[in-house]
Amino acid sequence: GSIFRGFIFQYIHIFYRGLTAIALSRNENDKRKYAAAVKACIKVLKIGRKKSPLNLSHQSYLLEAELAVTKKRYAFAERLFMLSIEHAASAGILHEHALAHERFGFFYMMRNSHEAAYEQIRVARDLYAKWGSKAKIDF
Predict the structure, then answer these.
(1) For the ranges 64-68, 85-89, 93-97, 135-139, which has the lowest average pLDDT?
(2) Average pLDDT value for residue range 96-116
(3) Which among 36, 34, 41 is positioned nearest to 15, based on CA atoms?
(4) Residue 86 clears pLDDT 50, i.e. is over it
């Protein structure tokens, strides 16, 4: 993939906006409003992914995985989490590679797959440590 030349910050903002909407949708009554926000974020990231797959593929796949979980499409979500991890690793974006493992671990916890959850969280912790995030590894 090619490195994105230009303003990537708008896509980073969209990615974290989508993650925030996913989190809010788990705790709020108006889940449709947040699902619509996540879908809009995914749409923008897919456009960006075409321009810069190396920088944005993992973000798009992670949001798609989280949305699939909310729709109880667990097998599809699992494949998307794996794609997010693979693409983040290929891009060398440590903190988002760690985040993809962390979210995949929480997915497995929700599915009562405790051994798989532990492995994903362990890998996330190691990646956060490599990235230098003392706050994440001490948590």
Answers:
(1) 135-139
(2) 98
(3) 41
(4) yes
> What is the CB-side half-sphere exposure of residue 112 using CA atoms within 13 A?
0
Please state, in angstroms and rounded to a whole number, the distance separating the CA atoms of residues 1 and 76.
24
In this prediction, residues 106-111 reach a mean pLDDT of 97
Q: How far apart are CA 95 and CA 72, in angstroms?
A: 27
Return d(Cα 39, Cα 18) in angstroms, integer. 8
SS3 readout for the chain: CCCCCCCCHHHHHHHHHHHHHHHHHCCCCCHHHHHHHHHHHHHHHHHHHHHCHHHHHHHHHHHHHHHHHHCCCHHHHHHHHHHHHHHHHHHCCHHHHHHHHHHHHHHHHHCCCHHHHHHHHHHHHHHHHHHCCHHHHHC
Name every residue whose Cβ is closer than 8 Å to that of residue 115 and which is 6 or more positions away in sequence. none
Contact 23, 75 (CB under 8 A): no
CA distances from 27 to 14, 21, 62, 139 (A): 20, 10, 20, 22
